[in-house]
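Structure (tokenized):
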């Protein structure tokens, strides 16, 4: 895969196409590629998921391989995921993933529970005698631990993640549904695999972010057009944003208008403009979470741009990044005749 698109333009196009349907609330559509938890794995395009040790190793290996294989950017696989090395291995930077996955199970007595049961009914089926029955209960405790390591071709460690979690379920003899070790461990394996996948690859996400609706500090003349702009977010967010921008120029010190204008910038991929307006919102109303969340999204998207550039860099790009000059091609080299 050759990644040669402008990330800002791609995010803008995704926002315009993915969110063509009206929203169900006063929101604006934000589409972006957000950073992986770790930067180092970005340099690898091919990942070989090797055997995992431990009594849950086979299950976790399969779950992790599937989780990594589902990582996509603009519908294309982020990694070439393999079970072992093979032909074409040297075509792109390769990393090897292995580790351990263990579960421990403990069943313990957990007291009793009582249930009132009818032991005698009259001719009309009405209970006329009841008896309290006592049932024994047990507790199923499951602990899962795992570790994932990623090594490069020189056997140097580029990623290491440990994981430990536990769960407990109590059940009694009178219950028809009894928890199983398999179901409990499966959930733990899925969560760990997802966390590793989230560390290794960026994630593309579309979401609806609520605009602010308060008009309490808004100039009276702006309140009616602002209300119309709010309604437009459900059918034509482009028109709504044009109005939010216009109103913000008329009252730039209003928190609601400043934040909404910033959110509009984020929608179309103008991350610098959005960040400026989010910071201005915090100056007007310090400590609020909505502009802080916006700045966090923007920071992650910028970091993702760097990760994507490293991940999809062509060999020549990598050489130039190290300060080496590109070699002239054969077509550009001549005998010297006729040259200055």
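Design, position by position:
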């Amino acid at each position: 895969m050759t990644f040669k698109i402008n990330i800002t333009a791609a995010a803008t196009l995704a926002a315009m196409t993915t969110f063509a349907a009206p929203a169900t609330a006063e929101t604006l559509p934000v589409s972006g590629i957000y950073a992986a938890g770790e930067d180092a794995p970005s340099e690898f395009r091919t990942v070989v998921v090797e055997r995992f040790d431990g009594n849950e190793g086979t299950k976790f290996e399969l779950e992790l391989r599937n989780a990594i294989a589902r990582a996509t950017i603009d519908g294309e696989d982020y990694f070439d995921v393999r079970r072992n090395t093979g032909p074409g291995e040297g075509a792109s930077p390769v990393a090897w993933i292995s580790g351990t996955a263990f579960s421990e199970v403990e069943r313990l007595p957990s007291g009793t529970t009582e249930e009132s049961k009818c032991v005698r009914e009259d001719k009309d089926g009405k209970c006329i005698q009841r008896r309290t029955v006592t049932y024994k209960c047990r507790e199923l405790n499951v602990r899962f631990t795992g570790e994932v390591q990623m090594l490069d071709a020189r056997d140097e460690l580029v990623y290491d993640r440990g994981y430990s979690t536990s769960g407990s379920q109590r059940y009694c003899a009178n219950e028809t549904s009894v928890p199983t070790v398999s179901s409990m461990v499966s959930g733990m394996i899925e969560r760990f695999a997802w966390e590793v996948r989230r560390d290794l690859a960026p994630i593309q996400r579309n979401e609806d972010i609520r605009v602010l609706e308060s008009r309490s500090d808004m100039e009276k003349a702006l309140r009616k057009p602002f209300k119309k702009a709010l309604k437009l977010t459900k059918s034509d967010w482009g028109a709504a944003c044009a109005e939010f921008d216009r109103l913000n120029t008329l009252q730039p010190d209003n928190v609601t208008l400043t934040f909404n204008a910033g959110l509009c910038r984020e929608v179309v991929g103008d991350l610098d403009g959005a960040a400026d307006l989010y910071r201005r919102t915090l100056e007007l109303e310090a400590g609020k979470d909505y502009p802080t969340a916006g700045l966090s999204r923007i920071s992650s998207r910028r970091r993702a741009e760097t990760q994507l550039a490293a991940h999809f860099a062509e060999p020549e790009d990598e050489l130039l990044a190290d300060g080496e000059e590109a070699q002239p091609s054969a077509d550009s080299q001549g005998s010297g005749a006729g040259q200055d």
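Reviewer-requested clarification: The longest helix spans residues 289-311. The chain has two domains: 1-35+202-327, 36-201.
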